[in-house]
Design brief:
The protein contains 11 helices and no strands. It is about 75% helix and about 0% strand. Helix 1 crosses helix 4, helix 5 runs antiparallel to helix 7 and helix 8 packs antiparallel against helix 10 (about 170-185). With about 190 residues, the protein is mostly helical. It has helices at about 5-20, 30-35, 40-45, 50-75, 80-95, 100-105, 110-135, 145-160, 160-165, 170-185, 190-194. The protein has one domain: Orthogonal Bundle (Tetracycline Repressor, domain 2). The longest helix is centred in the middle third of the chain and has 27 residues, at about 110-135. The radius of gyration is 19 Å and the shape is elongated. GO terms for molecular function: DNA-binding transcription factor activity; transcription cis-regulatory region binding. It comes from Frankia casuarinae (strain DSM 45818 / CECT 9043 / HFP020203 / CcI3). Keywords: DNA-binding, Repressor, Transcription, Transcription regulation.
């Protein structure tokens, strides 16, 4: 049974949604309070400054996205399905991020560090998923750390919009292509034939 969310939790979700849609650099605290229909004092409960509020919102976004990605990944039956589910769920989690949000994320030192930390965590998770698939015989014996690092570099390019600029593929589609490319490269001959 889901628990009732508090007003600060709802407000933080609303703030994240606003930032994803419009970015965060140009907002003042007064504008944020007006858009979220709350007082500046209420916003200060989420962060003592606009800087802290921004970082807290970005962290919340990545925690929220990670929880959803892991929920979707856990529902998959095989190692291959889990890897595909993981990458596809990341694509869906990033879909609401507007170009303005991406530019602001890249330009904001601390927010960018939060993003880079999450990319590193995603690479570690991919490495684990590949290792599980190798152990289960679904994937051939590959260098999981190299593949995870390559995926992380591609994830960075997707997030910053460079894949879209170079290929025309939007995030979710790019993640689906990435999953297909990786699976085709690591699936064991035995698993591929079944």
């Amino acid at each position: 049974m889901p628990t009732a969310r508090t007003r600060p939790e709802v407000l933080l979700d609303d703030l994240v949604d606003l930032f994803l849609a419009e970015g965060f650099r140009t907002f003042t605290l007064a504008q944020l309070a007006a858009r979220l229909r709350c007082s500046k004092t209420t916003l200060y409960a989420l962060g003592q400054s606009k800087e802290q509020l921004t970082v807290n919102a970005v962290r919340h976004y990545f925690r929220r996205a990670t929880a959803q990605v892991e929920t979707e990944t856990a529902e998959a039956a095989s190692s291959a399905d889990r890897l595909v589910a993981y990458l596809a769920a990341i694509g869906r989690a990033l879909r609401p991020a507007s170009p303005a949000f991406r530019l602001d994320l890249a330009a904001h030192h601390v927010a960018r560090e939060v993003y880079e930390h999450n990319i590193a965590a995603a690479a570690a998770r991919v490495r684990q998923l590949i290792g599980d698939g190798v152990a289960a015989g679904e994937f051939r014996d590959v260098h999981a750390a190299f593949i995870a690092d390559t995926i992380a570099a591609t994830m960075e390019r997707i997030q910053t919009g460079r894949v879209l600029a170079a290929t025309g593929l939007h995030d979710a589609d790019a993640y689906e292509e990435l999953a297909s490319l990786v699976l085709d490269g690591i699936r064991s001959v035995t698993a591929a034939g079944t």
